Amino acid sequence: AGDEIGVLESVKAAADLYTPLSGNIIEINEALIDSPSLLNSDPYGSGWLFKIKISNENEISELFDAHQYAQYVDEEN
C-alpha cells in the first residue's frame, strides 16, 4: 500500500499514481492506452486502472467510499 505504481499524464500535468492497498497487481486496463479519456468519462465502469489481488483485507476499512472522498475533495478546495 502506498507504493508508486505509475504516472498519470495529461496535456497540462503529470501525477504519480499510488496503490491504495497491499497486494499484487494482476491486471491493468489496456483500453486506457488507446482511450485515456475513459478515465474521466467512465471512472466507475470502463475507466478502471488496475486490479489488485489484496494481501491485507484489513486495509480496505481505511479507504474512503465515494461520499467520503467527495467531502475530502470539497474540504481541500
Task: Describe the 3D structure.
It is a single chain. The protein has 77 residues and is an alpha+beta fold. A two-stranded antiparallel sheet has the order 1-2. It has helices at 31-34, 38-41, 66-76; strands at residues 4-9, 14-18, 23-28, 50-54.
User: What spatial form do the alpha-carbon principal axes imply?
Assistant: globular
Q: Give the tally of β-strands.
A: 4
The percent of residues in helical segments reads 10-25%
The average pLDDT value, as a whole number, equals 93
> Main beta sheet, described?
2 strands, antiparallel
State the strand order across the main sheet.
Answer: 1-2
**Ranges with pLDDT <50 over ≥5 residues?**
none
* First-to-last CA distance: 26 Å
Pattern of helices and strands? EEEHHEH
Count, helices = 3
What would you report as the Rg, rounded to the nearest angstrom? 14 Å
Approximate strand percentage: 25-35%
Helix/strand/pairing category: alpha+beta
Supply the key terms.
single chain, alpha+beta, 4 strands, 25% helix
Give the helices and strands, then pairings.
Elements: E1 4-9, E2 14-18, E3 23-28, H1 31-34, H2 38-41, E4 50-54, H3 66-76
Antiparallel strand pairs: 1-2, 3-4
